[in-house]
Amino acid sequence: MALLTRTAGALHRRPRLRLALLLTAPLLWLAVLYLGSLAVLFVSAFWTTDSFTSEVVKVWSTDNFHELFTTPVYRQVIVRSVGVALAVTALCVVIAFPVAFYTARVARAKWRPLLVVAILTPLWASYLVKVYAWRLILSEGGLADWMLKPFGLSGPGFGLPAAVLTLTYLWLPYMILPIHTALEQLPANLLDASADLGARTWRTFRSVVLPMVLPSVAAGSIFTFSLSLGDYITVQIVGGKTQLIGNLVYSNIELNLPMAAALGTVPVVVIVLYLLAMRRTGALSSL
Amino acid sequence: MRLTRTLQVAASAAALLLAATACGSSGNGGSSSTGLNPPDLKARSKLGKSEGQVNLIAWAGYVENGSNDPKVDWVTPFEKQTGCKVNSKVAASSDEMVKLMKTGEYDAVSASGDASLRLIASGDAAPVNTKLVPNYKDIFSGLKNGSWNSVKGRMYGIPHGRGANLLMYNTQKVTPAPTSWSAVFDDASTYKGHVTAYDSPIYIADAALYLKATKPELKIKDPYALDQKQFDAAVALLKKQNANIGEYWSDYLKEISAFKSGDSVVGTTWQVIANLTAQEGVKVKAFVPKEGSTGWSDTWMLYSKAKHPNCAYQWMNWIVSPKVNAQVAEYFGEAPANSKACELTSDKNFCTTYHAADESYWKNIAFWNTPIEQCLDGRTDVKCVPYAKWVQAWTEIKG
Amino acid sequence: MQLSRSARIALRVAAGLGFAVIYVPLLLVLVNSLNPDRSASWPPPRLTLHWWSVAWQNSGARAALWTSVKAGLGATAIALVLGTLIAFAVARHRFFGRGAISFVVVLPIALPGIVTGIALNSAFGTVLEPLGVGLGLFTVIVGHATFCIVVVFNNVVARLRRTSGSYEEAAMDLGADTFRAFVDVTFPLVRSALLAGGLLAFALSFDEIVVTTFTAGPGIETLPIWIFNNMTRPQQAPVVNVVAAVLVLLSAVPIYVAQRLSADTASGSRV
Question: Are residues B134 and B265 in the same domain?
């Protein structure tokens, strides 16, 4: 017991030691295991593969990156993937805002916890099951066709729009929740003050609500953007013949891991840049 | 300062990890794409005790244990007889099989001709001592010592069976009934958005086969030996086809569900898929069109560093035993490898329908093979396009 | 905020539509689990509980569920420990690289799962293979723990930011040493954040498929992998629907609990 007290005292007097003890294990885990394996993957992007045996040739070469930047199809796929990620983010914001506004400020206070539960429950339904449900909805003669038939239209079928639609659906809760939180915490007196100064609803929304909610929108967008950018399973299931960057990485893993690694660095770089940009808006602290 | 020390430790550990991977030996064995120099591996001389388990990589429908259809099960009797528990992984393509073999976790693989040579060259497949497989003697001679499963007279596997890729179509939605691959190439726009094709670079050979019949001026002899001009023509044809494709399939279940829902109405398939789709209530027909077809001859190959080699040998003997070979051939829809299996099929005409003993038929089926620079049809005046370029082109075709 | 009546009605309608869209696919899954026709045709001819009884007896599903629970518990335990350690370091100390650490912690969940998956797969192959160890459940746990850390971290950091260090200082003024102050004062303050973070880390691990595919050994089948393997098999597809329906119905409970626990962070935010 005395040992314990003495250790406690020593720790108290040495905040640096405390800090080091706190950080050692997690840093070892994150830096060595995670960042280390990412670094190794990045290094392997500079290797090549023997075309016949598919054995990795550990000789430094920038062939993969050269191919990546000169082949038009890779550029197309990268642009398409970033486009999809941005489209999904935009759609999520547009749909999430009214829903979050309702649950945070319009709905009665006693319903709010239940509404939050209602928003979160779909996250527990397996990702695969949700995507397959959409495959059923979008397939020939499925729910989408069935509902649009009276209007003489047909569903979008499988393809890029279907993939965007499904991805939007999947990540919607990730966007609704941060916006809900931010709107809920919006101080009512600010809104009252704005009204007192003569601003009408839309002006208050634009000048007071939006700037305060922006970090949360940015936080949600980190999820919708990054999860859409790297996704390949949804594209395989409802995307028809579409290829996104995740699919290219996946199809190269079998035979050409260095090329897959080179392809994989693209979404990593894009996401890191996106994170750094979002950091300025304070999104990371409101995740 | 303690903190920087922690960071230093972390950094050096990370550096060690990096170094460990950077300095490693690359693959052993000859791997030039101009010739086959497999590493010198020895086959086992005798079998030992069974290890209690065997890990297999197989095409869909080759390793059935009753979980797909309770009446279709040749794994449970094997497990009971040998005490080797079977863990199997269904692979969707030859490329996936090559990759899975490299993980070292599996003991045997049912490799098609476009994988077998790669496995032999890289040293992942070891020669097989056919004396340890009693049922080997009954295998059709046309399957023994083929260019895809043996090198310099040494067998690298036990033949499983062979079959052709077929054109499948929904008889209610596709009329008139097609007779030619043009249904998915030149006439594909009729069913725009509902055409499907096999999602693998090897499918380029199907386009080449079609061009062999429709554009004789290209002088394509072997769809796996394409010089740059022939290759570009095949790729152009496939890019045109891409506009009409709804989705490509690699998972056989995906093709079944696409035909069931009506998202696909015509495309390449295997007999087992056609059978299963018909079982699901869809009216489909599958056949070899007039231009002929690509196909595959599958061989069970043993991993050179297999952890359960005795069970693997027992599996290979089991799967080519007359009764089991008949069962799997009938379930999958392919010609069996064991000549004695023909008497045991439930359909007495099965072997005739599938041309099991008709070697001349198989001359017209272009078995999956690995394209290499040295033209497989013997031409020496040109260089042929190697498989790595096929893979690249396939990505471009899909767009 | 003063909203005109039409604005309120519009919002109600929009929210109603939003919730409808969110729940329609889930209801479809539920209806399909009651669909006697295996091919999940629409509309279903009638409703039956037959598949529910089949699913109940399906040993593959139960084994996969148990594997997922084991993986989830393992990953959550590790994430709780590591996440709390980092959270305390970041919230209660100032040091060079503090911002960088918050950034690095988010990376495992922000970077594409496929990249994390192949990176870990290669790392495990390189490091473990020479030791004769293959991929297995523990590699899955390691992979999951890595991206679950951020969930716990965010919850605990948010709580620590809200509670000032003066409580601990007061305790120490009253004679408690570092450990006593932690056990008696700090821990009860962050307990509910830990629980909420742990629940969400578990949920994250439970549903993860991409990283799991690359880190699971051949015999390891977590529930998402089982679903992936059986989703499209004609005989098994209805069972998968039942499993999915059960997951959704049962999950409302832990979510509600997590909600109540983190009531002062005002949301059971997923992260």
Answer: no
Its domain, for residue A140, covers 72-286
A32 within some domain: no
**Residue A93 touches chain C, beta carbons under 8 Å:** no
Residues B93 and B145 in one domain: yes
Dihedral pair phi/psi, residue A169, rounded to 5°: -60, -45
Residues B64 and B123 in one domain: yes
Residues A157 and A238 sit within 8 Å (Cβ to Cβ): no
CATH number for region C59-265: 1.10.3720.10
What confidence tens digit (pLDDT) does each residue in B181-206 have?
A: 999 999 999 999 899 999 999 999 99
Chain B residues with beta carbon closer than 8 angstroms to that of A240: 245-247
Cα dihedral B104→B107→B109→B115 (10° resolution): 40
Contacts of C111 (CB under 8 A, 6+ apart): A38, A226, A230, A267, A268, A271
- Of how many residues is chain C composed? 271
Residue A224 lies in a domain: yes
Is A52's CB within 8 Å of B386's CB? yes
**C-alpha–C-alpha distance, residues C112 and C211, integer Å:** 9
Q: Whole domain around residue B355: which residue ranges?
A: 53-163+296-367
C-alpha R_g of chain C: 23
A126 to chain C, any CB pair closer than 8 A? The answer is yes
State the Cα–Cα distance between residues C260 and A116, nearest whole angstrom.
11
Q: State the Cα–Cα distance between residues C113 and A231, nearest whole angstrom.
A: 8
Residue A135 sits in a domain of what CATH number?
A: 1.10.3720.10
DSSP letter (8 states) at residue B347: S
Residue carrying structure tokens 């078995």: B367
Residues B243 and B380 in one domain: yes
ipTM greater than cut 0.95: no
Q: Please check whether residue A56 lies inside any domain of the structure.
A: no
Output the pTM of the full model: 0.84
Q: How many domains does chain B have?
A: 2
pLDDT digits (tens, 9 = 90+) for B53-93: 999 999 888 998 887 777 889 999 999 999 999 988 888 88
Touching subunits for chain C (3+ Cβ pairs under 8 A) = A, B
Q: Is C218–B87 a contact, with Cβ atoms under 8 angstroms apart?
A: yes
Q: How many domains does chain A have?
A: 1
Scanning A49-88 for CB atoms below 8 A from B yields 49-58, 67, 71-74, 76
Contact, C96 vs C194, CB < 8 A?
A: no
Longest dimension (CA), chain B: 83
